[in-house]
């Protein structure tokens, strides 16, 4: 019954709205708040850029959204549901965040796109121990990754292309587009 109630809550989250309601957060217990009484409503499907001077709280907003730090006060809602209602890993899979300079690891385009898909078995992605079912899963995954690359204007890249150390073989713009493709694959709202 508890699992069914949890799954019902998850279904409600599908609208993708985000709300910060009177959020206060500090980086140390009893420390000065870095966010104080912040209230923001982001409607479903909105594309939001967070800008501001150094120390304004941009990274702190993301830390609060991803539950990287406990809140001193207030609540963050995703899809109208308190973000604390779900285990950390499930919550983070529902939220897609793209930093200005996205992380790109040494390896292939495929390796970097897979960072967004914790739900796929790595042996499926790299072709290891490929049973018939796994081969089918890999084809589906490869098709989705190629579509995401095409959607962001990186259709010329192959999944097997090496990106170099910290994405050094890609331009800064290509690294950002790769990050956007990763967000598209993540399924976050």
Automatic annotation (TrEMBL):
Gene Ontology CC: membrane
Chain coiled-coil ranges: none
Keywords, in A-Z order: ATP-binding, Nucleotide-binding
SUPFAM superfamilies associated with the record: P-loop containing nucleoside triphosphate hydrolases (SSF52540)
A GO term for molecular function: ATP binding
Keyword Nucleotide-binding on entry: yes
Superkingdom of this protein's organism: Eukaryota
ABC transporter domain ranges (all copies): 35-186
Cited Gene3D superfamilies: P-loop containing nucleotide triphosphate hydrolases
Listed Pfam families: ABC_tran
Transmembrane segments: none
PANTHER family assigned to the protein according to its UniProt record, in alphabetical order: ATP-BINDING CASSETTE SUB-FAMILY C (PTHR24223), ATP-BINDING CASSETTE SUB-FAMILY C MEMBER 10 (PTHR24223:SF330)
Protein name, as recorded: ABC transporter domain-containing protein
UniProt source species: Neobodo designis
